[in-house]
């Protein structure tokens, strides 16, 4: 499915995001350069790219995680506020994968933070409109998929 037609021109940013989980249950969150919110790794769809292919490309670019798109487990589609683009809405196709935890941040990622399961449970209780330093999508996914 190609969703590249839902570009920012309509006030909607379409992305794929991935819940990367280590064997101990911790979830990878990233902070992009020039921002102050931690979010799930991922990014915007390229023209003609499927959400699943985008997710695989983005986690490879951002964290060096090479996973075939068909090995990503779909978690759902989420409509939330954006973390860093005021006035836009975010439409996210979210996937899950397990990793060993030896990843390093790359590309535009300034920081990689592993969040323990207990802290993810706390993040799930936060209101999406006042959840800094976390992104609203992270709060929604924690609430709907991780608790």
UniProtKB/TrEMBL annotation:
Keyword Hydrolase: yes
Gene source species: Dietzia maris
Domain spans labelled Nudix hydrolase: 10-137
Cofactor: Mg(2+)
Gene3D superfamilies: Nucleoside Triphosphate Pyrophosphohydrolase (3.90.79.10)
Keyword annotations: Hydrolase
SUPFAM superfamilies: Nudix
Superkingdom of the organism of origin: Bacteria
Protein name, entry field: NUDIX domain-containing protein
Lineage of source species: Bacteria, Bacillati, Actinomycetota, Actinomycetes, Mycobacteriales
Tagged with keyword Hydrolase: yes
